[in-house]
Amino acid sequence: MLWAVPETPPRDERLRVMPWWLVLVGLLLAALLGWLVLDWLLGEADRAAQPDTRASLRIDAIRTGLTVVAGTGGGLALLLAARRQWIGERAQRHQEAVAARDQAHRERVQAHAESVAEAAARHQDRQAEAAEHDAAERRLTELYTRAVELLGSDTAAVRLGGLYALERLGQDNPAQRQTITAVLCAYLRMPPPTDDPREDEVRRTAQRLLTRHLRADDPGHWPGVTLDLTGARLAGFDASGCTLVDADLTGAVCAGTTSFAGASVHGRLALGASFDDLVCDDLAGDAEIVLDGARVTGTASFTGATVGGALSARRAEFHRVSARGATFHRPVTLDRSRFTGSATFREAVFHGGVSVERAEFAGYAGFRRAHFADLALFRWAVFGAEAWFEGARFAGAANFGRARFLGPVSFDAATLARRPLVDQARATATGPHTWPEGTVVRRLDDEWLLLVDP
Q1: Domain hosting residue 330, numbered range
Q2: Do the bridges between strand 398-399 and strand 376-377 make them parallel or antiparallel, or are there none, so unpaired?
């Protein structure tokens, strides 16, 4: 705290005491002046020409001398009175200055005392807050430790109690929600005990607790938490309608139907896991979706999804894929992926580039009325059954170089901004094919047709 330095009051001049002899000298001077005036006037009266007026002149001279003496004495008395008045006024000013300095000093002392008291009060408040915070942290630590200990119990019911205790702890303490979410994810990443038939219920409860608080319409919504479920074993994981930020399921084993339907995803959604069925219908958001190495033995559905980030599914394996009416705003990469069943991208919109190089479609591959706004690469792709591009629109370059068409192919009513590249692509000679206008087809033998660029 800064203290203002008080101004130094001007120092009064030291008063000198008038010596007694100075008054005596003044009286003597007055008497001397009166005697001189009297002597002079008497001398003038004696020299007067008329003797009969001399006496009256002498009387006037004496009167005048006495008057001079009285006047001089009166002047000295007036001077002394004026000096007394001046000294009195200076004494009063001095007293007022001393009183003002005393008052200022008292005010400074009072302000200092109040400042010290205020600082002491603030210090006490901080100490009280710190003590309260420490007590709350100790209580929180005890509750957290106790809940985690319950998760390690051999009894399924006790583990369920530990899960709900952690949920309650996170609900009451927003700062601990990410930590509690990490604990629940870690529990799901741990291998389940093989000798407890009720463990499935415990793990399903942990999944429900995770996803319940990720739904924006839930009163207990936990915004901003991330999920790390790498290598976890999940059963019927339902994140539909959730708001996800950086969710990672890489290497997870997901039994049953795993649903992200209607979810809003941001950051990065890593789904390089093993799924029975994967549902991402009406999914939306700007997240990058990574399906590299994923394996879906049932159906992977992206019907009506709006993917704002890039989608990558390199070396993935799908049985059935449905992305009807989906919109992809960033590049889509399906290089070296394998589709053992049908793959439907009907009316899908690809605003970014599409790369399906060296992918294998063992069943039906449908791109009816799909819109490719940028580069579309199907080089070395293998179409084992029907490949339908009817009504598709290619606004950018399309490259089918060295692709293999083992079933019927149709580009009927397809529109291409430029002639597609089909160099060294091959198709069976038996199936009915409808190629883009201007495509050059040569028969190699009874089984194969060769497509070449003109």
Answers
A1: 224-452
A2: parallel
Name residue 361's beta-bridge partners: 339, 383
The number of residues in the chain equals 454
Q: How many CB atoms lie within 10 A of CB 34?
A: 20
Between CA 109 and CA 92 the distance in angstroms is 25
Domains in the chain, number: 2
- The secondary structure of residue 242, as a DSSP letter, is B
In a domain, 4, yes or no: no
Predicted confidence (pLDDT) per residue in 88-132, tens digit: 888 888 888 898 999 999 999 999 999 998 998 888 888 888 887
pLDDT digits (tens, 9 = 90+) for 38-60: 677 667 666 664 666 666 766 77
- Cβ burial, residue 142 (10 Å; 0-12/13-18/19+): exposed
Would the pLDDT of 71 be above 80?
A: no
Q: Is residue 203 part of a domain?
A: no
Domain stop point among 82, 111, 133: 133
For residue 159, being part of any structural domain is answered with no
Enter the tokens of residue 308.
């704002």
Find out whether 396 and 420 touch, Cβ atoms under 8 Å: no
**11 in a structural domain:** no
Decide the pairing of beta strands 365-366 and 398-399.
unpaired
pLDDT reported for residue 51 = 65
Span 1-23, pLDDT tens digits = 444 444 454 455 566 666 767 66
String of b and e for 103-118 (b: at least 16 CB within 10 Å)?
A: eeeeeeeeeeeeeeee
d(CA 150, CA 152): 5
> How would DSSP label each residue in 273-323?
SEEEEEE-TT-EES-EEE-TT-EEEEEEE-TT-EE-S-EE-TT-EEEEEE-
Residues 266/288, Cβ–Cβ less than 8 Å: no
